[in-house]
Write a structure and sequence with these properties.
Helix content is 63%, strand content 4%. By secondary structure, the protein is mostly helical. Among the domains are: 170 residues, Rossmann fold (3-Layer(aba) Sandwich); 45 residues; 95 residues, no CATH class; 70 residues, Arc Repressor Mutant, subunit A. The strands form 2 sheets. The protein has a 5-stranded parallel beta sheet, with helices on both faces. It has a two-stranded antiparallel sheet with strand order 6-7.
Length: 890
């Protein structure tokens, strides 16, 4: 794939993969003749939904498109396609970037979500794009030039859906040498389709006379020009070829045939051994050139775009810039690609002819030219184009070397291009470069069975340790072994083996971490703000997360590496949910410290989000908002395009606590994200929906809230997302309580307890405030009276949650966890034995049962109980338990 130099070697991967010259039609050539009967047709374009231009090469399709776009009344987005545009995602990314030129901000709004959804459900991604485009009121053309170059059925199928659902503001124009494989008959019957064929594009006799006499400045009679039009049947390229032949002294003969009945009837007319009339005319034009120009044309025909510097290298001629200008001046099928005339390409007809002529020179010379082009492109920073030429010229060692360097940039998004390259570079060459081979294994890891991948890694490690010793520098050997280790961790991650992840990441800490972006981010989803919810295999399960995050973080705590921040955030989230707030703050601070040093958005945002959530927990919501605003100022414009909706959702979550009604109105006034009615694919998207549900409940929009809760709960259950399931049950219980359906609310709460109890969820309950506390008290009361079944929920867990509410109240007052423990003992003054006996009272045990437990008499037990009643000011066992629950003593 070709890349634009402005992206640089270290640019954002989307910029790295988008060639901006493909987003503009080439400027109209100097020999363009205005044909009002066609150029004025733009006034009728928007009367139909789709316009097709289907005609052979050289018929003037691109010229007509250029004349339409040149009109001041037309707003157009263009994509010039070629035979490399076969990957469906790449195809749509070009369309999105083209439309962004019409509707600024479309990329920022759509791209992050499109990239998330497309690999899983392409149609959902297209719905997202169509909905966003529909918001644009400006009428515009979407032009896809040379659509015949696209051969992938998947793209055609998606384009069919796209066409059927085009918003009224967009008119699609398809230019192709062949009729596209769409079912458009219904559109034709409804008058929504307009088509131009060779018959409409062909020159009329009058236009032919004007072209020859006024544009080509030929001294011929009108009758001669009329005869040429008749010979070529008005085919623009054929007429131009005859004119050029005449201009250079030819006889304008089309022998051995005397007419052109079907110009370029075959797409690949060089493979059958037959020659069309265009071959004869092109050959005559070519033979009329000087030997120097012929050599220049042939040697520059191996590249799809060129400038004067590249032409000098390929032709080995210092006068290459002058020859380019001469070709442009003589209208010899040279097409400028930019308005500054820095880049050119040959017309498709002429390019194909020159390629066939060059092939006659032999493979060795062709490969040599590709090598020269590759070296030039690489030096200029056009590394992907250099890689293409290394491969085309069979310079596979250089291709492997460059592919190794480019891997990190491709893997950040353009994995389909990597697959194409690895398919053509021989595997034995890939294996001869251990780092490249590991890159290849990383690429195919999701497709290869776990056992097979482990075997490959074992063999590779054996080669490195045994056969490469002494052949490579020790630091290279060390690096390769580090990557082997992290690859094993990645395979464990893919197989949800969290113990394996922790084992391998801890194992190689003493070896040091490889400073290579390609392997730094392989083991997590960069596009999530909450690790506990999103990490593959954890999915909100605290015990799994603690076994993985805790082991890694405790070992890496003192290291300034990305894992300190990444896994530290996850561990901090677990500690916060377990209500171990002081410890959570410690890990959050450390993670944030490292994230600020590394300054990677995927680390900064989760670290700041965790800190903001902790500030809210501590009763300092204003500080939480400041933190979220602070991280926004640290992100690049590109990063903010993705993270803005996520950060805004976390801000709204805090604002709901500060001013519930006002904030809820603000949240619901803003429309939901495009496509939110479709399947959600990220935990952050679910979080945003949950914030909106909270606002609906506060504003008593219960029907909408109930519908959304049902949708989110179903998704969370399908994907086994525990935190989301717990939150859904909690919100449902609160909503039912607000509707005076306390019993139903308790049933919903019971579901939350069943889900959260085994994992030790605490903070999710406490964060819901006094309503949740009352629901828990109601649940406890109903359990004691046997009014509801236990469903496996332990009473001790419910009491632990109620105690957490009391700790939360003191926490917001600024007390530390150590201070809390001292205050409990000091305020009440229960002795150790009294505490133990009172614990059994809370469990419902009789005095006789307690006496048997401790080996004392029931009378002694009753004495201790009376002392407890006196210290608590209670009149009965039930009263004492209620007081203890309210004060957080259980």
């Amino acid at each position: 794939m070709q890349q634009e130099h402005t992206a640089g070697h270290h640019g954002d991967w989307l910029q790295f993969m988008i060639l901006t010259t493909k987003l503009e039609l080439p400027p109209l050539p100097a020999d363009t003749m205005d044909r009002p009967r066609l150029s004025l047709q733009h006034e009728e374009l928007f009367q139909s939904k789709v316009t097709l231009l289907t005609a052979p090469a050289g018929s003037g399709k691109s010229t007509l498109l250029g004349s339409w776009v040149r009109s001041a009344a037309i707003h157009a987005a263009c994509v010039c396609l070629d035979d490399k545009d076969q990957d469906p995602l790449q195809f749509w990314l070009y369309i999105i970037h083209a439309l962004d030129r019409l509707s600024k901000g479309l990329c920022g709004d759509v791209l992050p979500h499109f990239l998330q959804r497309y690999p899983v459900d392409p149609r959902s991604a297209l719905i997202l794009l169509l909905n966003r485009v529909a918001q644009t009121n400006q009428h515009a053309l979407l032009i896809l030039d040379d659509y015949h170059a696209v051969t992938q059925p998947e793209i055609h199928e998606q384009m069919q859906y796209f066409i059927e659902n085009l918003p009224l503001s967009i008119h699609l124009v398809l230019s192709s040498r062949t009729y596209p494989p769409f079912m458009l008959e219904k559109m034709r019957l409804r008058g929504e389709l307009k088509q131009y064929t060779l018959q409409e594009l062909a020159f009329t006799p009058e236009e032919g006379i004007e072209f020859c006499q006024e544009i080509m400045h030929l001294d011929i009679t009108g009758g001669d020009a009329r005869g040429w039009v008749q010979q070529t049947e008005g085919w623009a390229a054929g007429l131009k070829l005859l004119a050029l032949s005449h201009a250079w002294g030819g006889n304008a003969s089309v022998s051995p045939m005397n007419s052109i009945s079907s110009p370029l009837s075959r797409e690949d007319y060089g493979t059958t051994g037959e020659r069309t009339i265009s071959d004869y005319l092109l050959e005559e034009v070519f033979q009329r050139q000087s030997p120097q120009m012929q050599q220049f044309l042939l040697r520059t025909a191996i590249t799809r775009r060129m400038n004067s510097s590249l032409c000098q290298v390929l032709s080995n001629m210092q006068e290459a810039p002058q020859l380019l200008r001469q070709l442009e001046k003589e209208h010899l099928f040279l097409v400028p690609l930019d308005r500054e005339a820095h880049w050119y390409r040959y017309h498709h007809l002429f390019y194909a002819f020159l390629k066939r002529e060059l092939d006659r020179c032999g493979t060795e010379q062709v490969n040599e030219l590709h090598g020269l082009a590759a070296v030039w492109y690489e030096k200029q920073g056009y590394t992907a184009e250099a890689l293409d030429h290394y491969i085309l010229g069979q310079h596979m060692q250089d291709a492997a070397r460059l592919l190794e360097e480019l891997f990190a940039h491709f893997i950040m998004g353009e994995w389909w291009t990597l697959r194409r390259y690895f398919d053509v570079v021989p595997l034995e060459i890939v294996k001869s470069r251990p780092k490249l081979y590991m890159s290849y294994l990383f690429l195919v890891a999701r497709e290869m069975p776990y056992g097979q991948m482990v075997k490959q890694l074992d063999e590779l490690e054996h080669v490195i340790r045994v056969h490469l010793q002494g052949q490579l520098e020790p630091e290279i050997i060390e690096y390769l072994l580090q990557v082997i280790c992290v690859m094993r961790a990645y395979m464990a991650y893919l197989n949800r083996d969290l113990e394996g992840v922790a084992h391998y990441l801890v194992f190689y800490i003493d070896q040091g971490y490889p400073d290579d972006i390609a392997f730094q981010y392989m083991d997590y989803d960069r596009r999530e703000s909450m690790r506990l919810r999103s990490f593959h295999g954890v999915n909100g399960y605290l015990r799994r997360g603690e076994a993985c995050f805790g082991a890694i973080t405790e070992r890496w705590y003192a290291e300034h590496a990305y894992v300190t921040s990444y896994y530290g955030v996850g561990y901090g989230e677990i500690l916060m949910e377990q209500d171990r707030i002081v410890e959570a703050i410690s890990y959050a601070d450390r993670a944030l410290e490292v994230a600020l040093q590394i300054k990677v958005a995927a680390l900064l945002v989760p670290a700041y989000v965790l800190k903001a959530r902790l500030e809210l927990t501590m009763g300092r919501p204003e500080e939480g908002l400041k933190l979220l605003q602070q991280v926004s100022g640290l992100l690049s414009v590109k990063d903010m395009e993705y993270w803005q909706p996520v950060l805004e959702a976390h801000q709204h979550r805090i604002l709901i606590e500060m001013s519930p009604v006002e904030s809820s109105h603000t949240i619901l006034t803003k429309p939901a994200n495009e496509g939110d009615a479709a399947v959600e694919f990220s935990c952050d998207q679910i979080f945003r929906s949950m914030v909106r549900i909270r606002a609906m409940i506060i504003l008593e929009q219960y029907d909408y809230a109930r519908e959304e809760l049902r949708r989110i709960r179903k998704l969370a259950e399908e994907r086994d997302l525990l935190a989301e399931q717990v939150e859904c049950a909690l919100l449902e219980s609160i909503m039912l309580q607000k509707q005076a359906s306390t019993d139903a609310g308790v049933v919903a709460l019971s579901r939350a307890l069943v889900l959260g109890g085994p994992e030790g969820y605490i903070r999710s309950f406490v964060a819901e405030g006094e309503q949740m506390k009352r629901l828990l008290q109601d649940y406890l009361s109903l359990r004691r009276t046997k009014a509801i079944h236990d469903d496996g929920v332990k009473m001790a867990y419910v009491k632990q949650l109620l105690s957490a509410f009391a700790r939360d109240k003191r926490l917001r007052g600024g007390l530390s966890s150590v201070g809390e423990a001292k205050l409990d003992t000091k305020e009440v003054g229960l002795s150790p034995m009294e505490q133990k006996i009172f614990g059994h009272i809370a469990e419902g045990m009789t005095s006789k049962q307690i006496a048997a437990e401790f080996g004392i008499s029931p009378g002694t037990v009753n004495t201790h109980i009376r002392r407890v009643f006196a210290k608590l000011g209670a009149s009965s066992r039930t009263h004492a338990v209620q007081i203890a629950e309210q004060r957080g003593l259980l």
